[in-house]
Protein 1
Amino acid sequence: MNSADRIKLKQISGESVSVESIVLITTEGLAIKSNGSNTDIRVTNLNFAYLKDPVLKNVDFTLKQGAVGLLGPNGSGKTTLLRCLLGQVPLKAGQVEVLGLDMAKKARLARAGLGWMPERGGIIPGMSGVGLVAYLGQLSGMPSRDAMQRAHEVLHFVGLADERYRQCDDYSQGMKQRLKLAQALVHDPTWLFLDEPTSGLDPRGRVAILELIRDLAWNKGLGVILSTHLLADVETVCKEILVLRDGELLARETVDSVGHAPLQVFEVEGFGDEEAFLAGLKKLGASVTVDKRLLLVKLDMKKITGATADLSDKSVPFPAAAGVGAILSVASDCQYGLRRVRRRPVSLADEFYKMVEA
Ligand code: ADP
Ligand code: MG
């Protein structure tokens, strides 16, 4: 960062931001990113309370850079956990290490490698989209010219190129969410922390932002933690899911592992002679529960003929196609019409689905 950049930064960043600290982040932060040797997140016995009541209780996990879902009902402590990972709150009990740095001591340094999309806020009224993203890039230590160039790039990536000069408070909710994603990306972070990124979006807006997030995690190699109370969001994007309830880590599941589980749940939506269809499923050894319009069909894959043989997906012992095939043949035998059959991509218990979706 040259001295001209420093002066400009001082002018726009105001009294509350120390320019020297930003310079420090830039030099050392870049060293952290280019070093790239430790991209893990390690949380050890983390306990946290804002006041008296514990909000996070003995949370322990390690994450490799990848697509991770942080799933839990409202109030379960997701936002608080992300704040601990960002070093935004004082850590008293337990340890949080991000990019090889202890967040109780080196949070400012680590943040050079972290992008943060908060659920609320993040929009500064009166600024253009590109002005806002560039400004936030500067606040995270980028020289002004680099920040402006990257702002154009990331706004293009999120699909806001045409609207980038418009005042951001006039943006639709979907555009605001994409703008917030752009500002989280501007300094080229190693990990992205996204707090309820689909909040307030219509179905099309939801799909659009989830596709962007998936692209970042699966194709562009970023680590992503997607915090949400919506199971469908993490199913679309994440390879691994951490489940939080009342501040405790309740479960952890790798999405790919479902093909290895002998008991699998299929969602079935159809029409016709349901009684005959259910009787046919019973003969397969399935147990069926009804969830609104869906039939949840639990199959013991070991009993399904063909589950292991002659199917294209040989990488797992119990591929989804085997269960879908079995359900299709029962339906066709009793002429039950099927609108949709799919395996639930995670094998978390049904009660749990209900808890988080409630
Ligand atoms: P989630 O993001 O899963 O909805 P939060 O982390 O926001 O959960 O909240 C977890 C708990 O912490 C809730 O009981 C909430 O009321 C409480 N909480 C969150 N923020 C604060 C705060 N700033 N001060 C005091 N309590 C808070
Ligand atoms: Mg929250």
Protein 2
Amino acid sequence: MDVIRIRGGKRLHGVVPISGAKNAALPVLCATLLSDGESLLRNVPRLRDIETTAALLRFLGRNVEVDTPLVRVSGNGEPRPEAPYELVKQMRASIMVLGPLVARYGRAKVSLPGGCQIGTRPVDQHLKGLEALGATIRISRGYIVAEAPSRLRGNEIVFDLPTVTGTENLMMAAALAKGKSTLVNCAHEPEVEELALVLNKMGARVNGAGTDVIQIEGADELAPFDHAIVSDRIEAGTYMVAVAAAGGDVLLENAPLEHLEVLAVKLRAAGVEISREGTAVRVRRDKPLRPVDVTTAPHPGFPTDMQAQFMVLMCLAEGTSRIVETIFENRFMHVPELGRMGALIDVDGHTAHVHGGRPLSGAKVMATDLRASASLVIAGLVTAEGETDVQRVYHLDRGYDHMERKLAAIGADTQRIKGDEHIKGDEA
Ligand code: EPU
């Protein structure tokens, strides 16, 4: 397995192009199931999760050509409406084929995603919503079997809590249901708005995306689409934190600052300069960092997907900061790895106290999930001595388009070591 090797201590200067958003591209790829004909997705990032979704769509009977940033999906007629365990276990977002398949073909069999490193992550809200639209649901041998032989019917769906992929799954299902649906207590994330934009291009009538209540007038038929995916706010946020941590002056091209307001406020409070320059965002930091408290929350609050990276930044600020994780119950897996690099962080339940200002040193560390991997790469950029080997890079590759190359292009000493090369000379 590949390793990312980082030698710290370099300031960052230059330009980083921000890729299309993973979490917008995934539901939009699933939405291609709602119509026949050829859909075209532009600005798609080069990521492992995109390949996994392409493999899933192919399994379902679609033709998928991935030539990132362009992806073409086509196909006519009835697919095999089944998402197997082997694909779903690689990527929980596969659950988003459930809504489109049952809405369009009256039947779907999708492997029930298990827990993952960051939490138990149930899908009860997805299933409850589909039942409200008239589907019968049963769990059989690890699979969700959903049936609605005589078409889904529009209804009111009240989510017990805002769920991003749950909202997206139900929006896609309601777009082909008979009559009007009202989704209440919806997730507000920009990726939900992006999906609404695409569904409306397909001929659905979706209103209110980005607010608590989304109204959807179901259509009898939807058309294929041509759509350029919005820039990735979490990739942009990750580079903002990387520059803040390493110091320097970097321009992030096509960074959606309007979707990162709370992060920008927190970074400015920590002493980082952030300004908009046309469609780019300029990030500068040359003064010492200050400690800042953050609590994760659904959008527009501080994103859970930025918590691990921000924690590394706080390791560099003289003083104590408090980081509270409210979305996932087990999203502090990076803490022991950062401890191996010299960080001092106490965890008490969902709260981490970061005692910053201690020098970090290079170490071999293990990525446990996507955003934790990114945090370890950032920690590697700021070590005073030694080199950092981030292992299990497949987590990083799920959501970052060649992070080591983008960082190297702005002056970081980062390289990917292929396969088992890094094990040579290793005492372990
Ligand atoms: N939840 C339930 N029941 C449900 C669905 C969710 O209890 O049926 C709970 C979850 O366990 C969690 C909370 O609701 O405690 C919010 O989870 P949500 O459903 O919003 O998360 P998700 O849709 O599975 C998406 C992103 C995640 C991101 C979260 C939160 C995609 C493909 N994934 O996941 O992205 O962390 O929203 O913003 O959009 C990542 O990119 O690294 C990543 C994990």
